[in-house]
Amino acid sequence: MASPEDYVFLYCPEHITVAVKQSSFETRNNLALRWENQVRVIAGTAAPGFQIGLSRLDREWIFRSAQYVPHPDQPNIIFDLRTGTQAAFR
User: Fold this and answer.
1) pTM to 2 decimal places
2) How many CA atoms lie within 13 A of 71 on its CB side?
3) Who's near 31: CB < 8 A, 6+ residues apart?
């Protein structure tokens, strides 16, 4: 079942950020990823004046290295972005 939320949290090295559905946002800064068959664009919520899809960030590698995303419909389940499978934490 598709989630009604328009955003997901992304767990990156040293940072947590938000990605929103692409809709009409451009992706000139290439800070986007595909999750559940939809393009999500990074929203640099901690960067003053950040414009989704346009602004550049000093440490963009962090955002391009996103590792995990919680499933919006099942908040107790976290998925590995590289494999698309449920992450196993011990």
Assistant:
1) 0.75
2) 14
3) 41, 42, 44, 53, 57, 60, 63, 64
